[in-house]
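Subject: for your reference before the review

Hello V.,

The reviewers asked for a structural picture of the protein, and I figured it would be easier to keep everything in one thread rather than splitting it across files. Below is the amino acid sequence we used in the manuscript, unchanged from the supplementary table.
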Amino acid sequence: MLDSQSIHLTTLDSADLLRLQAVLDVICREAGKPKCSSAMQEIAAVLIRLYRQGVTEEDKLLSLGLMALTQKVSSPVAADSVQSPSEAARR
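And here is what came back from the structure prediction:
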């Protein structure tokens, strides 16, 4: 059994990165933001964390990525009090 630290150290292969990039591309288009923006870089980090935690379905990653973006935009100050996408994925 992997501990939580080793899960986060798992290497992603090129197929994994392509899947994540495709999801991020859709989120960028829907949000109207470039990938190089700080908001999209944060969403990319969220997607990678979710993927490493076992959320690999593209539609679920897309939903959770959009939810994370919406939460970030609607209340950037109260981000700690909002349910994280990984908590929502477990439901």
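For the response letter, the relevant points are probably these. The chain has five helices and no strands. Residues 78-82 have pLDDT under 50 and may be disordered.

Happy to draft the paragraph if you're swamped.

O.
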